[in-house]
């Protein structure tokens, strides 16, 4: 009798944990992109216009820079833009919860001495999401 009760209890417990896990997974998948969803259909400023509107404390190109990159791209393509400056130092960006087709601005500048400064801004919010300096 004890075995039957124990097996029944174990079966119920297993079912409850399985259902709970499935509900948690479903909720996470629905909210995964909620903070930074796909905005690929939206229209935003051109990179030059956005750069000119920036506070120069957030990002400014070096005077007489060896390289300047201003580009609007998808989040999934940030590292391919950054790789164009690899000869001056590697810089890469990653993130969780950002839709791959989220539009961002990527800026790269290299000083005459070879110092690298990168910045990534969300195109929709205008907030800086990543910065890298190798000074």
From TrEMBL:
Keyword terms of this UniProt record: Signal
Signal peptide: 1-26
Identification of the protein by name: PepSY domain-containing protein
Domain of life: Bacteria
UniProt KW Signal keyword: yes
